[in-house]
Every structure is written in C-alpha cells, then in structure tokens.
Structure to design on (86 residues):
C-alpha cells in the first residue's frame, strides 16, 4: 500500500524499531505530545513524524489548519474531505 513501507513490518521484521531504540522512542514520543500535541503510536510513526518536522519545522509552513472543524484525533491537522470527483 502507498509507499510500500508496510512490507518492512511484516512478520517478525522490526525495521523501524531497530532504527529507533525504545528509550529514544519514549523521549521523542513524549516530546511530540508535549510540544506539538501529536500522538506518536510506534517507531514507524516516529520515523515519518521526524521527516514531516524536517520538511515542515512549524505548523505555519504546512498549509493545513490544525484543530479546526474536523481534525485528526492524533495530530490535530484538518482531515481532508475528498468528494466523489476526487
């Protein structure tokens, strides 16, 4: 699906967990929650969150509202609604 990263976590693969030790995950996930109000679910999510913040260091750069009328419960960014025409 998507980027194909799902294959990296199939079966006993621990690709993302091997990249981010549990102690580092705990510290960074807590920091993301405290500073950005983003819930980080696992090492894969943290991996992508790090990249997101590298590209978009502040919410103002993103171009999507946070905590508006229909936000994602984990990150607060507005959920995009796609109509039948795409």
């Amino acid at each position: 699906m998507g980027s194909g990263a799902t294959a990296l976590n199939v079966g006993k693969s621990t690709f993302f967990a091997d990249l981010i030790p549990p102690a580092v995950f705990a510290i960074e996930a807590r920091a993301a929650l405290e500073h950005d109000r983003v819930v980080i679910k696992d090492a894969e999510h943290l991996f992508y969150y790090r990249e997101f913040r590298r590209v978009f260091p502040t919410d103002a750069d993103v171009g999507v509202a946070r905590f508006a009328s229909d936000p994602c419960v984990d990150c607060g960014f507005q959920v995009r609604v796609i109509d039948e025409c795409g």
Summary: Residues 56 and 62 are 6 Å apart (CA to CA). Residues 1-86 form one domain. The longest helix spans residues 22-36.
